[in-house]
Amino acid sequence: MKKVTGIFLFGVLFNAALFAQSTKTPVAVNGALRVENGKIINKDGAEPQLRGISFSWSLWQGRKYYNPAVVNWLANDFKASLIRASMGVQPDHGYLQEPALQKQLIVNVVDQAIKDGIYVLIDWHDHHSNQHLAQSKEFFAEMSKKYAGVPNVIYEIWNEPEAISWDTVKNYATQVIAEIRKNDAVNLIVVGSPHWDQDVDVVANNPIEGFKNIAYSFHFYASDPNHQEQLRAKADLAIKKGLPLIITEWGVGEANGNGKFDRNEVKTWMRWMEDNKLSWANWNITDKEETTALLLPGAPYNGGWTDSQLTSAGIYIREKLRELNK
């Protein structure tokens, strides 16, 4: 108890200093997030609807954008209220091979998000998390000790389980949640759902019990022919059954990251998110040549991007964030 109290007091003092810098940041306005009656709500009991950006895998060419300058640019120029730090677990050069480097990349992003007063998802970006339970528990034990009581921080414990049963995902999630709750009793935890975070209707029939402030991720790619009315119906059913959802990843293109940028389909999905007051993070900050990338090849690694350095997706998402996150 003494250890947890010390961590909690550190978080309180840390946040008091941060809030003193600004009373208008998203975190200063909304405070600690929690789940009540199937909704994610803020300190005043209202649904905050956070909107922002997901970093790409902390591997390959997206890695260079994992720095404080980019976070600051996303917060102040894009007006993002939420960012997602997508820590690649595997393959080569991921957390399994280079844990110290990967943790430092995440800490760099999270600490700047805290300074900027925005929310940040610490994402265990892995499709096979059930095979890496011990490593995941170790990682989230460390993160939850470091950030206990800091309201900016949200833990996302499994990115996109593939074609796997909900029982398998639930068993993994319950163990990782228990590890986090040893250190951080209240911060929001996001759990993945089967079939690349799409089968939230299945999860709604048998949600995790025994823990507070648990939400579930829902992913879609707005122009994908397989991600239209039928997929929205799954989420609608889950919402109706009281499952708290957060969209930790969505893209303007198709599920492979490429394909068409269909503005009509994107508009439909955007309207659906707004109608349901769902928080979201758009995929992704990278300069890879693909439809869902927000940056053109060679875009500066430290932010400061002009429209000429943004893709069509980047220009669109920036405009929407500046419009909606006023």
Tell me about this structure.
By secondary structure, this protein is α/β, with parallel strands linked by helices. It has one domain: TIM Barrel (Alpha-Beta Barrel). 40% of the residues lie in helices and 16% in strands. It contains 11 helices and 10 strands. The strands form 2 sheets. It has an 8-stranded parallel beta barrel with strand order 3-4-5-6-7-8-9-10, surrounded by 6 helices. It is globular, with a radius of gyration of 18 Å.
Q: Oligomerization state of this entry?
A: single chain
Number of helices: 11
CATH fold category name: TIM Barrel
- Structural class determined from secondary elements: alpha/beta
- Examine the secondary-structure arrangement and name the CATH architecture: Alpha-Beta Barrel
What would you call the shape? globular
According to CATH, what is the class?
Alpha Beta
Number of strands: 10
User: Residue-averaged pLDDT, rounded?
Assistant: 93
Give a quick account of the main beta sheet: strands, pairing sense, barrel closure.
8 strands, parallel, barrel
Which stretches of 5+ consecutive residues score pLDDT under 50?
A: 1-21
Instruction: Give the termini distance in whole angstroms.
Output: 41 Å
Helix content: 25-40%
Index terms:
326 residues; alpha/beta; TIM Barrel; two-stranded antiparallel ribbon; 11 helices; 16% strand; disordered N terminus
